[in-house]
Every structure is written in structure tokens, then in C-alpha cells.
Amino acid sequence: MRSICSTASIIFCLIVCFACQAALAAEPKRVMVLHSFGRDFKPWSEYAKTIRTELDRQSPWPLDITDHSLVTARSGDENSEVLFAEYLRALFAKHPLDLIVSIGAPAAAFVQRHRQQLFATTPMVFTAVEQRRVQYSSLTANDAVVAVGINYLAAIENILRVLPDTKNVTVIVGTSPIEKFWLEEIGREVKPLANRIALTWTNDLSFEDILKRAAALPPRSAIFWELMLVDATGVVHEGETPLTRLHAVANAPIFSYDESFFGRGIVGGPLLSVLEGSRQTAAVAVRILGGEKAGDIQVPVVQFATPKFDWREMQRWGIAGSRLPPGSEIHFRDPTIWEQYRWQIVAIAVVILFQTMSILQLLYEHRQRRMAEVQARQRMLELAHMSRNATAGELSASIAHELNQPLGAILSNAETVEAMLNSPSPNLDEIKEIVADITRDDQRASEVILRLRRLHTKSVVEAQDIDLNEAIGEVFEFLSIPAAERHVTLDSRLAPQGPRVKGDRIQVQQVIMNLVMNGMEADVGCADGERKVTGRITLLNNASVEISVADSGPGIPLDKLTQVFEPFFTTKEHGMGMGLSISRTIVQAHGGKIWVENQSGGGAIFRVKLPLAKAH
User: Fold this and answer.
1) Fold of the domain built from segment(s) 27-148
2) Kind of pairing, strands 198-201 and 221-225?
């Protein structure tokens, strides 16, 4: 029985303990944030906001945070703060605080002066206070410090680094007690630079006069923003307004020491990090709320962070990036095209590179093709020349016969003239007629030789206007004698309008000659009937003309019609099979078309279609 009662008692105690812990866990931690000047005075306002954010992030418990401001710090009236201390004592008499976070040196000093009456056992964190303003001798076991260290010498040297021609630095500072303190500290700390720059102070000016001075500074000047809480006329300045107004009128770049002013008009440099100081403050506060003794927590002094600069101000004042301290960060710079569209640029570059390579490949292939075409055309010209020579060889007997007639007549007439001249009374009229015959026979022989030379001519393609009537007429006249020897009648039916085409006269004549020669040979193969080759020129329209050469031979077998223009295809016993192939190449080079058909009445007809030359 006793064992059961003992077990029940233990269970009851555990339940009570868990209930107490749950009740304690549900109770929020009470934290007071004490401001030195007010909630909107920079730079402390930025620290306060960031500390609250960090406390909410780091704290495992719910927090009840209240804000209060030591307004008396603006004037240094210590008598007025007694009433403020009594107000705080009455406010927290029944609900004691778990932690006090003082922002700035005046708030820390106030708590230290009234700790025994107000917060004798309440732990406290001094933060956003420069280490020279901490009264270390007055610290208790309940006090922890997160101090900052302002290196004014480094801040002014930063001005001289980025703007080495600077000779005058105007320090913006007011007349509140804390501002007077820093006026003296700055003057003492930057004495090593006295031979390089002159310091000008604004503590004896109203803010309006400060703006006027900032707008009319001499060349090679800079402005150092320390604080502007209370000007010489007693006007209090809070928030971002004073710095914004100064930036709007200043004719010199503005520098400062704290990150809270960055992005609002200062150039930049080595600055105190608001985020770093706030994180450390929140971490210390959480440790204290968790039960650690405040006096046992030691935190290194927060020093200047990595230098950071405002790109917009650098551009405004012509500060080159090469003058910045090594490792500096540049903010507010519009990203470059490369930074914004890096992958798109890479993709486009790859596409362009691919296209470029493709174009180069196409150009190379085009060049090779052009070279091949030139070589092919050269080979074609050589083959055409060989074909003409072969044709001339075949016609050599006829040509010799045609030349022999005028040469024989010339010789006979010359002998006759010689005999008549030796007579006692030569008949001059008869001699004139004989001389005229000699001249006529000579011209006939010359024409035969000229046609033969043209046939043998080896030349490049020369585009010119060709009168088809004249060119084809010459071919039919040239071939008339060999045709007569083979008992083949040549019939040329020319167009009355005299059509003209653009091309090479010799090559066009060679095509017609090949076709007529083929027709003559086809006719010779016929045993019966009239042997005839007919050439005709027909205007198709205003753009083209057709030349047809028809024979009266047996025609071309149907299975051979598509092969006659192929190289080395021939139906002749001793033929090379190149004539029609060369003819097709020449016609195509002139923008034309050649084909062959069998006529219904017998024989084959070759048709050549060529574009007319454009009228000038």
C-alpha cells in the first residue's frame, strides 16, 4: 500500500513540474530597448530595427519587446532624466524586465547611473556604442558589451585614397554632447594628416547654413558625415532627411563611417556593419535570456567591415575602380549585359559560331564548285576545240576541193592576162573583166580560209550579241559542199526578224554544225528517198527562240532517245560520242535547253531553245 502511495506521489510531482515548465515556457521574455535619442535617429535606428529582427529569428522563446527613448540626451540636461527614471521604475515595478538592450552611449550611461534604483539585478546589453564611450569601470556582473570601434583615421585616409587630390574635408557635426565629444576625437585622431588636408567643422552653423556651405565648397573638397542631431540653432534633425538634403545640394562627394548611411548619398569605404553588430547583440541577448551570466560573456569589438562603395556615387564623382581598396565591394551597379544574359549570349555565340562555320563551309564548297566549274568549262572548251578540229579533219577533202576551184580559176585567169599583155594590142576591157574574176575568186578562197580559221579557233567564252540568221547561215554555207558530195540537201529557213541571242558565236555555231553533221550522216545511212537536212529558226515569244535541225534519216531508237546526250554514247561505228554531250553543255552554259524527238514522217529533229538577248 505504501508503495502505491509513493508511486502516486512521484507521478503527481512530475505532473506539477511539467505544468510549471509549460507555464514558464508560455510566459514571454520581457525585453526593453532603450534608445539614446529616439527611434528614428540614425545610425542607431538601423541597429535597433536589425536587432529586433535578429532577436525574433534567434530567440526560442516568445518576446515582449518595448521601446523607450532617452530624449534628454539631445541636450545633456541630467536633471530632466530623473523624472524619466521615476517613470520607468513605476512602469516596470510589478512586471520586472528580463533584459535591457541599450542603443548608443547616452542610453548606456543612463542605465549605469540609475541601475541601483531601477534595475539592480536586471541584465543589460550595451550595444551600438563606440568603445571609447563605454564606462568599463562602472560595469557590473549583469552587464555585457557589444561595442564598435570607429577608426576615423582610416575613414579619412579612404577619402585620400579614392580622391588623392583632396585638400579640404568638411566634417558635418552638430552641437549635442555626443557630437561635441566626437568633434574633439576626430580632430585628435586625424592629426597625422594635418600636412595633407585641412578640416572644417560645422558645429557653429545652422543646418541651412551648412547646406549653403556644402553647395559652394572649393575644388578638391570632400564632406565627412559624422552626425547631425542638433544644429547650432537647437533644431533637432532625425531620420534620413538631413543627409538627403545635403546630398541634393553638395558640390563635393560625401563619406561616412557607418553602413546605415550607405546607399543614401555617401560614396562608401570601410564601414561599420549594422548586420554584424546586430547579430552579435541578438546572440548575446539570447544567451543571457537562456541563463548565462552577462558579465561572463565577452564579445570582440566590431571593427570596420570589407570596404563597400556606391557605384552611382563613383560615377557621379569620377572615382575609378582601380583606386578602391583591394577586395572592395561595389553596390548599385547595373549588371553588365554579360552578367544579365550570360547563358543567352553563350547560346547565341554558339549558334553564330555554328552558322559561321556553316557559312565558311558553304563558301569553301562554293569556291571548290566554282573552280570545278571553271575547270569543267575549260575542259569543255578543249573538247569543243578538239571536236571542231575533228570536224575540220572530216571536211578537209571538201575544203581542199572548195579552195582548189577558186585557186585554179585564179591561176587560169592570171595566165590569160599575162598572154593578153604580151600581145601587140591587148584588150583592156577584157583584161579588167579577168582581173575582176581573179578578185572574186580570191575573196571566195579567203572566205573559205576564214571559216576554217574560225572553226579551229581556241578561245574563252565571250558573251556578245549574236545574229542567229547570220551565224547559222554561215554554218549552212560552210557545209554546203560536203553536203553536196554526200548528196544531202541543206535547207535553212531563217527568221525574218533576225533574232539575237547573248553568247559565244563560235560555240553556238559549233552546236549547229554538230547537229547538221549528225543529220547528214543519218541521211547518208538511208538507201532511198530524198536526203535532206533542214534548219529552222522560230521565235517562240518575246523571250526565247528555237533552232531546230531535222533530218530525213531513220530516226533514233526509242530506247536511245534519253542517252544520245550522254558522254561517249554514239551510234556511229567510229564516233567518240562527245559531239552531242558537248553541244548540251554549250547550250546549258547559254541558259538554254536541247532535246531530240523522232518525227512522225521519219527522221529525227533536234531542238535548241535559247533566251533572246535583251534589247538595249
Assistant:
1) Rossmann fold (3.40.50)
2) unpaired
Q: What is the pLDDT of residues 352-365, one digit of tens each?
A: 999 999 999 999 98
pLDDT tens digits, 549-606: 998 888 888 888 778 888 766 666 555 566 788 888 888 888 899 999 998 888 889 9
Q: What are phi and psi of 429, to 5 degrees?
A: -65, -40
| Residues in Cβ contact with 178 at an 8 Å cutoff, skipping those fewer than 6 apart | 36, 73, 104, 105, 106, 133, 227, 229
Instruction: Specify the amino acid at residue 153.
Output: L
Closest to 467 in 3D by CA, of 444, 495, 490? 495
Q: What are phi and psi of 335, to 5 degrees?
A: -60, 145
The DSSP string of 309-365 is EEHHHHHHHT--GGGSPTT-EEESPPPPHHHHSHHHHHHHHHHHHHHHHHHHHHHHH
DSSP 175: S
Q: Which three cell numbers stand for residue 344?
A: 543567352
What CATH number does the domain located at 461-616 have? 3.30.565.10
DSSP state letter for 30: E
Which listed CATH number (3.90.226.10, 3.40.50.2300, 3.40.190.10, 2.30.30.40) goes with 152-271+305-333? 3.40.50.2300
309's grid cell: 562603395
> How many angstroms separate the CA atoms of 535 and 411, rounded?
36
Give the integer Cα–Cα distance in Å for 197 and 153: 12
Q: Under a CB-based contact definition with an 8 Å cutoff, are residues 73 and 176 in contact?
A: yes
pLDDT in tens, 457-507: 555 556 788 888 888 888 888 888 888 888 888 888 888 878 889 888 888
Beta-carbon contacts of residue 578 (< 8 Å; ≥ 6 apart)? 383, 387, 567, 568
* Contact partners, residue 204, CB within 8 Å, separation at least 6: 232
How long, in residues, is the chain?
A: 616
CATH number of 395-459: 1.20.120
| Residue 576: partners with Cβ closer than 8 Å, 6 or more residues away | 390, 568, 570
Q: Which three cell numbers stand for residue 353?
A: 559560331
Q: How far apart are the first and last CA of the chain?
A: 135
Domain locations along the chain: 27-148, 152-271+305-333, 338-370, 395-459, 461-616
